[in-house]
Each structure stands twice: as C-alpha cells, then as structure tokens.
Design a protein that fits this description.
The protein is mostly helical. The chain has 7 helices and 2 strands. It is flat. The two termini are 27 Å apart. The model has no long low-confidence stretch (mean pLDDT 84).
C-alpha cells in the first residue's frame, strides 16, 4: 500500500519556506552555516584525535586541510540546502507534492527491495572504484600486497557497505517524508459473491 501525500502538510511547508525567504533568509543561511561548521569541525577533530598517535598538534600543511576542508564542506552543504529548498520549483505546492508522491511511490511500490539492492550495487561500484584508485595511488597495504584476496575482501566490504547504505538512505528518506504522508484510504470493493 503506497501512502498518499497530505496536501495540507505540503502547503504548510511551502508557506514556511516562503516566509523564511521573505523575512529571514539571511538568518536562516547563517544558522545553517554555523550548524554545518560546528558539525564538520567536530568530525574533523574526532578524526584528528583518533588519527594522531602523539600530542594533538597540527603542522602548517595539515592545518590548511584541517581548517579548509570542513569550511568548504559547510559552505557547500549550506549552498545546496538553500538551492534545494528555495528554488522556484520548491516553492510550488503542486510540484513539491508531485515530487514527494513520485519518490514515495518509487520507494514503496512493488519491487522496491530489488531496486534498492541495485542502487546499492551501483553505489558500491561508483564509490568503490575511486576509493580503490586512491588506495592504489597512495600505496596502501591493500594495493601493495598484490594479493587477489586483499582486493576481493576490499571489494566485498565496499559492496556490502554500499548495499547497507542504500537501504539506510531509503529508510531515512521515508522517515523525513513521514510528515507529508498519510495512509491511503481503504476503498470499499464491490461485493462479487453474488
């Protein structure tokens, strides 16, 4: 059973976006940018703490990476969020409702497990090949070993991770859309027992 889009909830969301755009867009951008900066710097700090084996110090060349990459990612995420939420199509109730209905139908209709599995395999290939190339270029132990077993283990791990991520992304998408959905009405089927 595919849920249906709650038009009133979509109208309320579009009205909220329009109000932000008209009244407090600058504050919204600063809030999202600040939140993204905090999150990305926290991740960078956690990685730095677990990656360092000695005192927590940053060399000049690493400092550029430590400070620039999270800042770039925060600006990029904020820009993408603003572009996604406030473009013309995202402020049209009909288009937003149709897009939600189309995506929910794709994620919940017959055959969704196979489609999600294929999306995971595609994600594994798309993500796995570049990661394998990077590991080969930097000379990681997996690439240096030259053993087929190392490559097979790495490829299997990437594939399993990607399949798991595809199902997690599906669940997260449906979870985020839950406020725009309501159960489909049960239609009374005609009695054919005559």
């Amino acid at each position: 059973m595919v849920p249906v889009v709650d038009r009133a909830a979509v109208e309320a969301e579009v009205a909220r976006r329009r109000a932000i755009l008209q009244a407090s867009f600058g504050r919204w951008v600063l809030t999202k940018l600040g939140t993204s900066l905090l999150a990305f710097y926290a991740v960078a700090l956690v990685i730095r703490v677990f990656a360092s084996r000695g005192p927590l110090s940053v060399a000049t060349s690493n400092a550029v990476v430590f400070f620039a990459v999270p800042a770039f990612m925060a600006v990029f995420v904020t820009w993408m969020a603003a572009r996604t939420l406030f473009r013309r199509e995202a402020l049209d109730v009909e288009r937003v409702a149709a897009a939600i209905a189309r995506e929910v139908a794709y994620l919940t209709s017959d055959g969704w497990p196979l489609r999600t599995l294929l999306a995971g395999i595609t994600l594994g290939v798309v993500a796995g090949v570049p990661v394998a190339m990077v590991l080969w270029v930097i000379g990681s132990p997996i690439a240096r070993s030259g053993l087929v077993a190392g490559v097979v283990i790495f490829a299997s791990g990437m594939l399993l991770w990607a399949i798991l991520m595809a199902f997690i992304i599906r669940f997260a998408t449906l979870h985020l859309y839950r406020r725009f959905l309501r159960p489909a009405p049960i239609s009374a089927a005609p009695d054919t027992r005559g």
